[in-house]
Write a structure and sequence with these properties.
With about 130 residues, the protein is α+β, with helices and mostly antiparallel strands. The protein has 2 domains: about 1-35, Single Sheet (N-terminal domain of TfIIb); about 35-130, K homology (KH) domain (GMP Synthetase, Chain A, domain 3, 2-Layer Sandwich), CATH 3.30.300. The protein has 3 helices and 6 strands, in the order E-E-E-H-E-E-H-H-E. It has helices spanning about 40-60, 100-115, 115-120, and strands at about 10-15, 20-25, 30, 70-80, 85-95, 125-130. The strands form 2 sheets. It has a 3-stranded antiparallel beta sheet, with no helix packed on it. A hairpin with a 5-residue loop joins strand 1 and strand 2. The relative contact order is 0.15. This is Ohr family peroxiredoxin. It comes from Rhizobium vallis. Pfam families: OsmC.
């Protein structure tokens, strides 16, 4: 198997009261408030975008036409327990116009395709709900 680089994201982050995050291509330029809840929002947005692409790929592989674009509401929560920090995630997925059993198959398959799902597997609690 030959590995092929598809994309490299480059960001510059500055902390403190006037913290910010900027991508080298200019598509991301946001202020980072203290104590940085933006990190969970950014992670949720990035994961959701990737996950939607994975759902679309899973549908294409199965020759399933999606009547509407998939939608994901991500909830990334930060927890503390005795000085240790950890994340939990909930992905609420909407696949309008798709039978429930087919939709469940697609969202399950997407976790095997999406690099964010692969990276978090076994590392954080993830709940996926079809809404």
């Amino acid at each position: 198997m030959t590995e092929k680089l598809l994309f490299t994201g480059k960001t510059h982050i500055v902390g403190g009261r006037e913290g910010y995050a900027r991508s080298s291509d200019g598509t991301l330029d946001i202020k980072l408030p203290q104590p940085h809840p933006a990190a969970e929002n950014l992670f949720g947005a990035a994961w959701s975008a990737c996950y939607i692409g994975a759902i679309e790929l899973a549908a294409s592989q199965r020759k399933i036409a999606l009547p509407a674009g998939p939608e994901v509401d991500a909830e990334i929560t930060l927890h503390a327990d005795n000085g240790s920090f950890f994340l939990r995630a909930r992905l609420n997925v909407s696949l309008a116009g798709i039978e429930r059993d087919v939709a469940e198959e697609l969202i399950h398959a997407a976790h095997g395709i999406c690099p964010y799902s692969k990276a978090t597997r076994g590392n954080i609690d993830v709940e996926t709900r079809l809404v």
